[in-house]
Amino acid sequence: MTLAIIAAFCTSLVAITWQLTAERIASNKKEWLERNLQPALAGLFFDSPVTESMLLIPPPHELPGSETAIIYRVYAGEEPVAALFVVSARDGYAGPIRLLIGIAMDGTVTGVRVLEHRETPGLGDRVEITKSDWVLQFDGHSLRDPAAPRWAIKGDGGDFDELTGASVTPRAIVNAIRETLSYFDANRVAVFAAPAEIEGESSVGSK
Fold this sequence. Notes:
Layout: H1 2-37, E1 53-57, E2 69-76, E3 79-89, E4 97-104, E5 109-116, H2 168-193
Antiparallel strand pairs: 1-2, 2-3, 3-4, 4-5
């Protein structure tokens, strides 16, 4: 009986604590997400919260990765300005590489950031913005600049730099950016026409 009373008291305490802190936790999480998304929108004017209009694209889809892809639609007033894609490069050296790829309405890359990876310290991990400026080389490029055959690392005959001692990781990221640009080029209208916060099935670019 004593243990039951203690358990009930503890359960009530946890429930009350959650109710008191849930709103603050959600607000802090949103602020953190906003701060981390905005660097991929360099040079763009927008006046809507980045996380306000989210689209979830469950697999199978034509974006990089086998997980659910996330798209944040960004606006200035009612006009779409850019889309932020959270996707995964499938073929990293040590596994998938989670990426944030910003694309303006004219199809140019506004920024790329590596969100999560398991690449080799001192080699592949230099794709992180905190380790080197390697990801900045994609800013301002589009699906047609350079032409599709040149969307590759220099070691494969393309236009983009590798990392000394590491080619698998940069190759995976370049391929993922090219695939995301291709998806946006083919689905631009549908991406912004779809209702926000879609859960489950989606027809936007799904196979």
